[in-house]
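To: structure subgroup
Subject: Chain for Friday's discussion

All,

I'm putting the inputs and outputs inline so they're searchable in the archive.
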Amino acid sequence: MHYMLIYLETAEEMGKRGNPAEAGTYWGGWNAYMGAMAQSGVMVSGNGLKTPEVATTLRVVDGKRHIHDGPFADTKEMLGGYVIIDVANLDDALEWAARAPCASAGSVEVRPVLPAPAEG
């Protein structure tokens, strides 16, 4: 079964990405974690994301586009990336989620992926 692991990081954790004193440890943890998933064969796909400051949020209200630079909501945790994994069950997905570097400073949302609609 496919599960999406949605990685939510605090601004402090996300700030380590570009801090020369902390970037090596930050990226080292993520590289080891992603490498372990790839090596185990559970990883289907995934991507890290740039920081929310470069996001663009779009809403359509009464047929008109409303565009907002940056994230729409001010939250304590920001979407840092996601991975789709293929594991037997939710318990296995939770085991991988618990190993994520952001699990102790942010959170990991685990969500089943809807199956593709049947053709025909």
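Points worth raising on Friday:
The longest helix spans residues 23-40.
The beta strands are 2-10, 43-48, 56-61, 64-69, 77-86, 107-112.

D.
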